[in-house]
Amino acid sequence: MDYDVAIIGAGWAGINAAFKARELGLKPALIERSRAGGTCLHRGCIPTKALIQSAKTYSLLHKSKTFGIEHNGASLDFKAACQRKDKVVSQLYSGLQQALKGIDLIEDEATLISPQEVRLSGKKITSRFILIASGSRPIAPQALGLAGSNILTSDALLELESLPHSLLVIGGGVIGCEFAALYASLGSAVTVVEIAPHLLPGNDVDIARKLEASFKKRGITILTGTDARTVEPARFETVLFAVGRAPDTSGIGLEALGVKLEKGAPVTDDILQTSVTGIYAAGDCTGRAMLAHAAAYQGRLAIENMFLTKPPRLCDEPIPSCIYTSPEIASIGLSEEAARKNNIPVQIFKADLIASGMARIIDETEGFIKIVACAQSGEVLGASFIGPHATELIGIICVAIKSRLKTKELAEVIFPHPTISESIADALKN
């Protein structure tokens, strides 16, 4: 055998799988047809959050008078903000290349010949196992029959060199809401159209309603319960088509080997093995949770299950979800709606940030913390946050759920004051 494992795709799942394999003293091949880093580094998490930080800074300058600071006015240099975004990506990419030293990174197209053979453009390699980590791609506008030079996916929107005066966002999910908040903060006139009754379908309804109210206060037009095909895209300078992402598995040869697919995603069991023995899948391509940290976890877990853990570890860890809107949103575990729907008896704890000393200090009182616990045992089952630093605070609940803490135990933790985090204890004491 040439390799212990052939990993197809060098996004967060593939990279972390390669790191885990190297840690175990194995020989991985990491095959990538584009650039290592995947969607997260080049077209998703990193570039979008770099722009969001510019937007936050710009917004803070405009409210400086609230903090007793006068200035002669602030102007946006969108091109400079984009250059900073590209610099951040470049720096992290350079660091990643250094981290991958010692791992065979093969920049090529890969096609499966058998569960132990991969064809590249100029040769064939063999491997004891294969891991599919090919990621995802934005769903194209043609999926709704839409066409026009001004209709862009999130990939293309990140390449804009000038700020659009008007932006229509088709899709009020995570990606759509993040871009809506970003461009509204930078000064674009933003409209969001979502076919579901509220933004962020699948998320906590109270959170979604709070975000809608916040968006409307900031001048963002919200059209929920609306089919995008009834809105005229030509009326807007730029249109973002953000109705979701799809597994990017075409051309790998999965069908020819009999790998079972559902909507393009390899169907995996609880140990991340596909329907073909020896072929595993991890990350966005599985459709389980299209999140970079979920992909990293799955990539490591797949390697452990191939070579290490007996019996294999199940892919059952709760995955936190973060939305970098303004205000920020984060959640993990069981939601109130899911508990009610499945007749799970729960107790709900809630604290409004208007009572938080730190929220008033930073002038960000818009939001709340909601914690879901088992009604019988008191064990923390889930939480949803909306407000400042929500994407950082959710880590506390991740640890609580992992440690199977009860609400009484979490409430007895001494949180520092004044902080937003102490609102977690405040919620549990109400």
How would you sum up this structure, described in words?
The structure is a single chain. β17 and β18 form a beta hairpin. The model has no long low-confidence stretch (mean pLDDT 95). The longest helix is centred in the first third of the chain and has 22 residues, at 78-99. The protein has three domains: 3-137 and 247-307, FAD/NAD(P)-binding domain (3-Layer(bba) Sandwich), CATH 3.50.50.60; 141-243, FAD/NAD(P)-binding domain, CATH 3.50.50.60; 327-429, Enolase-like, domain 1 (2-Layer Sandwich). The protein is globular and about 65 Å long. The chain has helices spanning 12-23, 38-43, 45-62, 78-99, 154-157, 174-186, 205-217, 292-307, 336-341, 357-361, 390-402, 407-411, 422-429; strands at residues 3-8, 28-32, 104-107, 111-114, 117-119, 124-132, 136-138, 151-152, 166-170, 189-194, 221-224, 238-241, 245-247, 261-262, 265-266, 279-281, 321-323, 329-333, 346-352, 368-374, 380-386. α1 packs parallel to α8 (292-307), α3 runs antiparallel to α4 (78-99) and α3 packs parallel to α6. Helix content is 33%, strand content 22%. Strands 1, 2, 3, 4, 5, 6 and 16 form a seven-stranded mixed beta sheet that branches. Strands 8-12-9-10-11 form a five-stranded parallel beta sheet. A five-stranded antiparallel beta sheet has the order 17-18-21-20-19, sandwiched between helices. It is of the alpha/beta class and 430 residues long. The termini are far apart.
